[in-house]
Write a structure and sequence with these properties.
mainly beta; 11 strands
Length: 119
């Protein structure tokens, strides 16, 4: 199973970005899909998650600005980020809990996509 993120880049404060993460490989089903981020010198932290039943939860600093969604037909999770702040600058990672074709469940990570918020 491979996860590939895209959509990062450089944006001015107050701007928006939409991140995408596509899962591929031997996939029977995908449960929770999440976005994490890791800024310079800090630990990786959860930004938002969405369960297999489409329930979303957000870290406090992203509530009201970020929206997580998923397209199960495309094995894809999105993170719409609005009103971006310099402190949102980080590498954003996708995580998915996947049951593969052998019925084995594992947690998988993407390679990360850089988001830089700066004027």
């Amino acid at each position: 199973v491979t996860l590939v993120e895209s959509g990062g880049g450089l944006v001015q404060p107050g701007g928006s970005l939409r991140l995408s993460c596509v899962a591929s490989g031997s996939i029977a089903s995908i449960d929770t899909m999440s976005w994490y981020r890791q800024g310079p010198g800090v630990q990786r932290e959860l930004v938002a998650l969405i369960t297999g039943s489409n329930t979303a939860n957000y870290e406090d600093s992203s509530k009201g600005r970020f929206t997580i969604s998923r397209d199960n037909a495309k094995n894809t999770v999105y993170l719409q980020m609005n009103s971006l702040k310099p402190e949102d600058t980080a590498v954003y990672y996708c995580n998915a809990v996947v049951k593969n074709g052998l019925g084995i469940t594992g947690s998988y990570w993407g390679q990360g996509t850089q988001v830089t918020v700066s004027s």
